[in-house]
Amino acid sequence: MLYGILLIIASIFLVLLSAWLRLCHRRKRLRLTSSLEPNETFLSREVRTVIANAGGIYVSLTLAAAFLKLEIAEQLMFWGLSFDPIAVLSLILALLQPIFLPDNS
């Protein structure tokens, strides 16, 4: 139970770190282009971006695994939590994306 709570807290921290890095990169681009447009709220835009990226990565990994006929467990248990390993990998990659590819938004 404690590990599950710690895992959720760590996930929230990674989402906030990802959002903060994206905000820094966006501000830098705005200074360079100086074009201001009305936008959605920052948090809604960042959550949508992370989920969209994770969804794209998930579909790609699922199709690659099916094409290569890889046997991947549908559910894994870790510290009492059951999850889809490809979905977790996709979410982790989407959260780490602004660290390794800062110009991609």
Task: For the structure shown, list the relevant keywords.
two-stranded antiparallel sheet; mainly alpha; flat; 70% helix; 105 residues
Indicate the topology.
Layout: H1 2-33, H2 42-67, E1 76-78, E2 81-83, H3 85-100
Antiparallel strand pairs: 1-2
Helix pairs in contact: 1-2, 1-3, 2-3
**DSSP summary, beta strand count:** 2
Major sheet size, sense and barrel closure: 2 strands, antiparallel
Give the assembly state of these chains.
single chain
Number of helices: 3
Radius of gyration: 17 Å
Sequence of secondary-structure elements = HHEEH
Return the structural class.
mainly alpha
Cross-sheet strand order for the largest sheet? 1-2
End-to-end Cα distance = 36 Å
Note the overall shape: flat
**Relative helix content:** over 70%
**Uncertain regions: pLDDT < 50 for 5+ in a row?**
none
> Strand fraction band?
5-15%
Mean pLDDT across all amino acids? 82
Q: How many separate structural domains?
A: 1
Account of the protein in words:
By secondary structure, the protein is mainly alpha-helical. The chain has one domain (2-100). It has three helices and two strands, in the order ααββα. It has helices at residues 2-33, 42-67, 85-100, and strands at residues 76-78, 81-83. A two-stranded antiparallel ribbon has the order 1-2. Strand 1 and strand 2 (81-83) form a beta hairpin. Helix 1 packs across helix 2 (42-67), helix 1 (2-33) runs parallel beside helix 3 (85-100) and helix 2 (42-67) crosses helix 3. The longest helix is centred in the first third of the chain and has 32 residues, at 2-33. The radius of gyration is 17 Å and the shape is flat. The mean pLDDT is 82.
